[in-house]
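[scheduler] slot 2 assigned
[scheduler] job type: sequence-to-structure, two independent chains
[scheduler] chain ordering preserved from manifest
[runner] begin chain α
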Amino acid sequence: MRSPSVPPPAIIALFLVIAACSQSVAAREEVRVRAGYHGAIAYHPESGSIGWATDRRTDREARVEALRQCGHERCEVVAAVTRGCVALARTGKTHVVQKGATRQEAEAKALRRCGARCEIAAWTCTR
């Protein structure tokens, strides 16, 4: 009767690498889901141009989409959010962005901080 043979070291190493890669992919996906989706608001005060993005996979994707929608070459990202909401309130002279757990909370905070004659110009919420 033969005794069981021990696998060569190369096979064991390959198995360990495959196991580590599988755990790594699963861990990255778990972090992405746990982190939530991203949103952003871009604004150009002089022209009044606004753009926003909601539920993008990365912060970069959200910022790029908000800038694309804003449409002015000098637009800037004024707010970014993950798992929550953000609102932009403005008048002709000033603008304020505020975050909140809900759209209503973000809008109320932005209006309160912006002052009289402000209006909500944009908002976005993410999952």
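[runner] end chain α
[runner] begin chain β
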Amino acid sequence: MNPVYENRECQICGNQKNKLLIKQQFSMISESALLDVYNVVVCEDCGFCFADKIPQQSEFDIYYYEMSKYEYQNHGNLVSKYDLARFQTTQSFLGKFLPNHQISILEIGCATGALLSIFKNIGFEM
């Protein structure tokens, strides 16, 4: 069971009032997960969306240092075939909505950057 985390203030304007957009839940496939749920909220003042009720940065630092799923030294430093296929499917889907290759793409939580690399390899400017 996850501990209860405090509400975060908006990192853009400092407002502490927000509205719940969605409760993000994860399937617990192992005991090593940092959390099984958090809120995605929108700041009622400036409209910035962010994750709320999450651990402090120091807890994330320890978790990713000890449990990172992004270390590929056991795979020849390559993205797995499964992840590569998933990223290619994502790029194919998102590409339909992008008007041209000169637009800027921002991926938050991009892990190793493999999806962005796929966009770059097909001609998108970064």
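[runner] end chain β
[qc] chain β: The helical segments are 57-67, 81-95, 114-121.
[scheduler] slot 2 released
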